[in-house]
Amino acid sequence: MDKIKTKKAKIAIVGLGYVGLPIATLFASKGFNVIGIELDKKIIESISNNKSPIEEPLLTRLLLSAKKNNKIQVTTVPSLAIKNANIILVCVQTPLSKKKIPMLEKLKIACSQVAENLVKGQLILIISTVPPKAMRMNLLLKIEGISELKCGRDFWLTYSPERIALGKSIQELIRNPKIVGGYDNRSTELAVQLWKSVSKGKIFSTNFETAEIVKLAENTFRDINIAYANVLALICNRLEIDVSEVIDLANTHPRVNIHRPGCGVGGPCLPKDPYFLLESIDKVSLEGSIIKIARDINDYMPTYVANLVVKLLSTLNKKIEKARIAVIGLAYKSDVGDTRNSPSKRIIQELLNYGTDIVIYDPYVTNASNKINMMKSLPDAVKNCDCVLITVNHKIFEKIKYEEMFSLMNEKPFIIDARDGVQIIYSDKN
Ligand code: SAJ
Questions:
Q1: Which residues form the catalytic set?
Q2: Nearest atom within ligand 1 for CA of residue 268
Q3: Is the CB of 259 within 6 Å of ligand 1?
Q4: Which pTM does this prediction carry?
Q5: pLDDT tens-digit profile of 294-315?
Q6: Which residue CA neighbors atom 40 of ligand 1 most closely?
């Protein structure tokens, strides 16, 4: 406790990805000595070259100042880094398998490495998202079994899920409330004190199981709410009503907060976490049904949009395999360049299956696969297209003018704007 309060505690962070690296740089910027353990050589190389491997506001600045003050080191070798630390944070990925089963392999390996090198008196925080009961039934037993040390006597363990959104990671790490689920009171107290050194947000204490479900409940709530917005969009499309206005007006009610509809739900978390929650219950049970149906609705949205393109082209007597389509937006959400599970990529894949000519414009995405046809400007992308599909609500797309795009497009052009519902726009000249 004293070492935390005086910032003399040495911190090891296993996994320097989208979550681990912002946490590492933040602790280092507050004066802690931090060592990051990462197996991906590209990430290590990028950090060694003073460049953040992910595009995240403030991250490169924090990284540079941490390195200048000699507060952050990186290594590919876990043993010494773990042995020498007082506190170990585990921030590795826990993805979903193709069969929608949580894959905890990386987390289990990380916990085994921590356990093999565990020294009496250490505090461990698990930050990665886990399915319910994984802490007590799996990770705790593994760490105790391998280390032959006893939690609550020889070491302390907490579950403290990450709650930060890409693009705002540092500011949310500082401001967002924290959840700390400890094995016992001492584990909780130590982790609360640790977060207090970097966070201005409220810190809530609870047990393992509640903390596990809280994380999943948050993202599942968001997924279900977006699914409802998407269903409203489908209903409004049938009735030829503007869903955007419907939601804006409904949200003027003090107890209503409908999220925004779009062309699907992407990213590393929302398409995954509801399945982690479903792991704890019978998937065909009543309580599982709303979670599963919401997931299915959001998962269906890219297909809905791709089918709409095909249908509208056919109505205009244009052959899909001869059409040229510009997709404006490749990122999974607004104002970031990250394309993980991006709905746009799903739409593009479905349209490519028809043999369509596709061009893409997204100035945020700098690392797109060279197999896709990225254009350097909006006019370049839109020129000679039959259809323009706007998929992401980037701020810089606010200035987009439909008529300017129509003037560059082929005859009988149309635009599908999926930034807030799925709206079809035809040129006045048609
Ligand atoms: N989306 C909509 N409509 C909306 C809001 C979002 O269609 O009204 C779509 C986005 O376009 C995107 C997807 O949902 O495709 C996910 O967007 P997001 O804003 O939820 O962003 P994430 O996935 O980067 O971050 C979420 C956050 N969770 C919550 O807000 C409850 C973040 O706080 C979590 O830390 C993160 O998941 C995570 O890592 O779990």
A1: 215, 269
A2: 23
A3: yes
A4: 0.96
A5: 999 999 999 999 999 999 999 9
A6: 269
